[in-house]
TrEMBL record:
<protein>
    <recommendedName>
        <fullName>NTP pyrophosphohydrolase MazG putative catalytic core domain-containing protein</fullName>
    </recommendedName>
</protein>
Length: 110
C-alpha cells in the first residue's frame, strides 16, 4: 500500500464542535470523570453491548455504535487529542502495514 496515503477527512471543525458538545454534556452529568473512567465504561459496558447487538441481531445497532463514539470523543477531549488528527496519523501508519486475518481477527503483521 502507498505509504504517502492522503486520507481525506470530514471537516475537522465539525468534528471538533461535536466533540466539544459531548464533553460539555458529559461535564454536566459527571464533572469529575477521568479518561480512565470513560475507557473503563467503554471497554466493560459499551463495546460488549455493541458486540451483543451484532451477535443477537446480525447487524450493528446505531445507538450502540453511537455510545462507543461518544465515549471515544469524550476521551479525546479530556486528553487534549484532536480526533481527526489522531485518525489521520493512525491511518497513515495502518496504510503502510501488512495485514492478516488470524484467529477471527484482522491483525497487522509488524
Amino acid at each position: 500500500m502507498d505509504k504517502d496515503f492522503d486520507f481525506k477527512l470530514a471537516e475537522p471543525t465539525e468534528l471538533q464542535v461535536i466533540t466539544r458538545a459531548i464533553w460539555n454534556w458529559a461535564n454536566e452529568i459527571m464533572p469529575n470523570r477521568t479518561p480512565a473512567d470513560a475507557i473503563k465504561k467503554l471497554s466493560m459496558e459499551e463495546v460488549p453491548e455493541l458486540w451483543r447487538s451484532i451477535k443477537e441481531n446480525g447487524e450493528v445497532d446505531e445507538g450502540e455504535i453511537a455510545d462507543v463514539l461518544i465515549l471515544a470523543l469524550d476521551i479525546c477531549e479530556m486528553s487534549c487529542i484532536d480526533p481527526a488528527e489522531a485518525i489521520h496519523n493512525k491511518m497513515v501508519i495502518n496504510m503502510g502495514r501488512r495485514w492478516k486475518f488470524e484467529h477471527g481477527v484482522l491483525q497487522h503483521e509488524d
